[in-house]
Write the structure tokens for this entry.
Amino acid sequence: MRIRSVALFVAAAAVLPFALHAQYEETGSRGIHYAKKQLTPAPVPRFAQSRAALPSPIADGSPQYVELYWKAWSLAFDHFKQPPAGSPFVSNYVDEAFSPSVFQWDTFFMLMFARYGHAVFPAVQSLDNFYARQYPNGYICREIQEADGKDYVFVGREHTVNPPLFAWAEVESFKVTGDSSRFAAVLPPLVKYAEWLEQYRKKPGTRHGLYWNTGLGSGMDNLPLSGSGWVDMSSQMVLMYRNLAFICTELGKKGDAARFTTAADSIAGRVNALMWNEQDGYYYNVDDDGKQLPLRSIGSFWPMLAGIADHAKALRLLSHLKDPRTFWRPIPFPSLAADEPAYQPDGHYWLGGVWAPTNVMVIKGLERYGRETENPTDHSFEEFAHHASKRYLDGLTAVHRETGTLWENYSPELMMRGNPSQKDFVGWTGCGPIQLFIENVLGFRPDGAHRKLTWHIRRIDRHGIERLRFGDVSATLIAQQRSGTGAPAEVHVVSNRPFELTVIMDGGTPRTYTVAAGAQRFTVQ
């Protein structure tokens, strides 16, 4: 919630009668599950001094994207902060900077782009402050005041549980940095948080045994969602368990990894059995009896990111994203289908507004099915993720030309900021100009832990990136202009260390090259 207005979200935030006050009581010292107890003072970098160390994108045919990229970074550096004097926070952090509190929901997605500047500012440490303020029973409030570390509770405690994305954010950071040193320390608070969610975010006595949230808690404040089983929350639990299993595997804890994988599979099975509507090709929230509550919101695409949908279901969801009557609007993707009665062309926050966190969720979900499809010749997911990222950036650049800045959310129809919307908002809006530009427009997918890089080349202009850091590799990769799609690409690479490069040209067959340290060039057919 970014605007202190009950009216904005009250329809989507009905208080559920089974929320128990005891679950939010402090019964001991906070942060007992996390080893880091105090701040080690460190300076916060400034943009002017750090720009030369950041990845520098090249896109000769789209200079507006490059301009927006640097605008996002310049705003981001204004949001790198030290804890104020007297704060119990234990790390420097990224901050959305519109309130005197830090938010889980915002922080998770700020990390998605800030990890590309990890050599300058280790943004993942922002999560430390939430772990350090965790209750003994595992609860972590969605919003914590920076000055004193106290919870900020707006309206009621039942609204203070954000999407459980800590484990996902840790793993996604690891994929770029290659640094697994955090995993052992963060696993205890992550497991304790999972235990709390299992106890208090499932309503007793339901047919479905799935998970609930509120509009404010879900981050989608005024979306008119209801029910005791929510598609987004239940899918996020699957995503949480899959990433906990990943962390445990990295730590050699095979038994725990198997246990978390089993939990994820069990939830995914219930989501598919009870929430999937075969006629509509959509996932819906359910009530206590498992009756579906049809509303086509952006929240119903979380099963793709969580890997719940099979290939056939993912294709049905893809068709909704491509449909101009619902989600394929001038700026994709609205938070509510355009043909829903409550849809607002100016966005009206989550009644149609276009938001970076859900766009990242959709595009990364599409990317997952492009990578893990049951049909290796089906490139429709990757192609559409690329196309959608460009269309989204086109909308952001159009608004940037008119206003000179980035906004909290956007109208899906009018090439303007959403109504209402905060200005100079890199909070999560930086995901489009930085993360999606690097990963889905330019096509770079790093694996820092294994010195591997996949490059999807779809553009025909001269394009690439300088100083891309993944793990201990710093590489510059440039594809020269070519005559058209299907034509060979002349690729120049300069790297400080050897790494494995896989190039996928125009959705074709992957070709893998062993890149040596130094400079080299090769032709990709």
